[in-house]
Design a protein that fits this description.
Blueprint: H1 10-28, H2 53-68, E1 73-82, E2 89-97, E3 100-108, E4 111-112, H3 115-130, H4 132-153, H5 156-159, E5 160-168, E6 171-178, H6 187-193, E7 196-202, E8 208-214, E9 219-221, E10 227-229, E11 234-242, E12 246-260, E13 264-280, H7 286-293
Antiparallel strand pairs: 1-2, 1-13, 2-3, 3-4, 5-6, 6-7, 7-8, 8-11, 9-10, 10-12, 11-12, 12-13
Helix pairs in contact: 1-4, 1-6, 3-7
């Protein structure tokens, strides 16, 4: 999300940076996570023996790193209401490729696309198939977001106090809050460091099930002159195991509010649900993915 447009000033650059921090953390955490079994279990419990919350989170991150190197590609059904959709409910078929994610809009507010709109969507996809290099270039920003989100996730054991570990069915829940001894290294880290929340880890696979975070108080940057993100701003993302021994984002909720430099509004509201995951070949081309979505 950009908080200012058209300005080349340093203030605007910092504002866009802050916006990406506040919103990007919420949205892109869902994109980067790629199973494994770690630790010795106590009898009658899935929680590793003598594992502190920090140790368990560190093990979870190590498993996610290893599995991220082996993750496959999928198609799925997405239902999303957000700024991108203009506040409408978009139903899309999505296909993952090495060049990026292709989307085909198939319904809006529950009504299937017909006539000119359906023809325009097919023409758009045909244009992507004819210019895969251009599509890859346009998708690079999302790949950067994945790297960014991974860096933010790795902040958990070093920038937050992890506590309150308890078993909840097949999952382990851990609370997190800012560690006052940690000095954020950037504006992005400062925004993330203001959040409190919980993470849920699958006991058997040590995979990340969900992350929930919220700002308990207003987050001001530069005494509020650069940006202020409002208290109550929050995000939640949930992942589900799918075929191929992988975990994919199934639910994403984001509600970020505030104001930025030059009195620009910060706003990000999104709800997305992903279902019907099916594996596709790792080497699927853009043209093949387009053909698959057009069936």
């Amino acid at each position: 999300m950009r908080l200012s447009e058209g300005s080349r000033s340093e203030g605007s650059k910092r504002t866009r940076f802050v916006g990406r921090a506040g919103v990007g953390v919420a949205v892109t955490l869902a994109l980067v996570l790629g199973a494994g079994r770690v630790g010795v279990r106590a009898a009658g419990s899935d929680v590793p023996v003598a594992a502190s919350p920090k140790e368990l989170v560190q093990k979870m991150l190590a498993v996610e790193d290893a599995e991220g190197l082996r993750k496959g590609r999928y198609t799925y059904l997405s239902k999303e209401r957000s700024e991108r959709t203009g506040g409408r409910l978009w139903t899309e078929r999505v296909a993952e490729t090495s060049a990026g994610k292709l989307r085909r809009l198939i319904a809006e507010d529950g009504q299937p696309l017909t006539g000119d709109r359906a023809a325009a969507e097919n023409a758009r996809l045909a244009g992507i198939a004819a210019d895969p290099a251009g599509f890859r270039k346009r998708s690079e920003a999302l790949k950067n977001d994945e790297k960014h989100a991974k860096e933010m996730l790795n902040m958990l054991p070093r920038a937050f106090l992890l506590e309150g570990m308890r078993q909840e069915g097949e999952f382990v829940r851990i609370d997190f809050r800012p560690d006052p001894a940690y000095a954020p290294q950037s504006l992005e880290e400062r925004v993330l460091h203001g959040m409190v929340g919980t993470i849920l880890v699958d006991s058997k696979s040590t995979r990340l099930r969900s992350v929930q975070g919220r700002l308990p108080t207003d987050m001001s940057i530069g005494f509020g002159l650069v940006a202020t993100i409002k208290a109550g701003s929050n995000f939640a993302t949930m992942r589900t195991p799918v075929a191929g021994n992988e975990w994919k984002t199934s639910v994403l909720d984001t509600d970020i509010n505030g104001r930025a430099i030059f009195f620009k509004a910060i706003g990000k509201k999104e709800h997305a649900e992903h279902t019907e995951f099916a594996q596709v070949p790792m080497d699927i081309t853009v043209a093949q993915a387009v053909a698959l979505l057009q069936r």
